[in-house]
Structure to design on (155 residues):
């Protein structure tokens, strides 16, 4: 059993380096031996001190994943793992105004550049890459429509 003061110190140490979701911080505290009532007390203390802010964490997460070339569906899965609702994600996205269509095209370009698509198998492989990255079917179709409209890009 860990002391409450020690758990607060650990939480503050982690949160001083980067933002965490409530679920992540809770997990780290459980690994340090926090009992349920201690866990609640530390989480509430962190929120009251504004060290733990779910919306700030979510904003950071969305910006980072968008910069890395991930789409909405990928983000949604990651948020579910962090116990963050789709509504919270959607509210965050409204303030950030991310263009998923441009992001899908950029992710494709970064991975494949100007290399031509040799056959149908290659095309499905590239489409699957964008799907794993979390882009919608419409966004993927738009990327390939854009490629088709450019000369010498598809086979």
């Amino acid at each position: 059993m860990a002391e409450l003061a020690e758990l607060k110190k650990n939480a503050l140490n982690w949160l001083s380096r980067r933002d965490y979701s409530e679920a992540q911080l809770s997990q780290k505290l459980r690994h340090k031996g926090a009992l349920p009532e201690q866990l609640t007390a530390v989480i509430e203390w962190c929120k009251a001190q504004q060290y733990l802010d779910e919306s700030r964490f979510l904003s950071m997460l969305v910006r980072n994943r968008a910069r890395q070339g991930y789409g909405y569906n990928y983000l949604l899965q990651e948020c579910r793992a962090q116990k963050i609702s789709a509504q919270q994600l959607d509210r965050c996205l409204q303030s950030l105004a991310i263009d998923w269509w441009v992001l899908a095209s950029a992710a494709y370009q970064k991975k494949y550049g100007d290399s031509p698509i040799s056959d149908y198998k290659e095309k499905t492989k590239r489409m699957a890459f964008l799907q794993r990255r979390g882009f919608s079917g419409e966004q993927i179709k738009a990327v390939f429509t854009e490629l088709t409209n450019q000369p010498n890009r598809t086979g």
Summary: The domain at 100-148 is CATH 1.10.10 (Arc Repressor Mutant, subunit A). Residues 10 and 59 are 23 Å apart (CA to CA).
